[in-house]
Amino acid sequence: MNTAFIGDIHGCLEELIYVSRRALAEAERLVFLGDYVDRGPNSKAVIDELISLKSEYPQRTVFLGGNHDAEFIRVLKTDVAPDLFLRMGGAKTIRSYLEPPYEQALPRLRSEVPRSHLEFLSTLQPAYFGVGVMAVHDKSDIAIDGRFVVAGHNSQASLKPRITQDFALIDTGCGTIRGGRLTCFVWPSKDWWQSP
Known about the structure:
Helix content: 25-40%
CATH architecture: 4-Layer Sandwich
Radius of gyration: 16 Å
């Protein structure tokens, strides 16, 4: 069974649509590695698209959570100060949900993020385990058990995935590095391709 692993999206809707459509045509299962929000321009629309994919293909899609997603949930569900969220690029996420002016942005954000988005973000998985392969958002968060590891989180400055005998790091700067692309890595062939 071909499994397509999709790297960090960071609010890039066009790239997500391109990569997910191609991956659906080429693989039986799609595993998204997290970091759906922040830095790119369309975090809200990205979450809408992911919810749609989950609804339309519930048996074919798996959604892992990234550190940006976790911080977004923390800001939405608690009274924590948003300093870390903003340093992580959260202002772009806020702008995707709210119309200006941005006074009282945090209370407005907490009331205007749709319930469906909160539910989706609250069900993100920490890891995926398949035959001969495992996936996690951040490779340092998991004990290696002999399976090939696919991970995001660590942006590759080359804008190409780093693939070794034991792992693939597929965060290629989508939304975070100028010219960054969204990467899809296919198991077991170890083929990969990117958004235009």
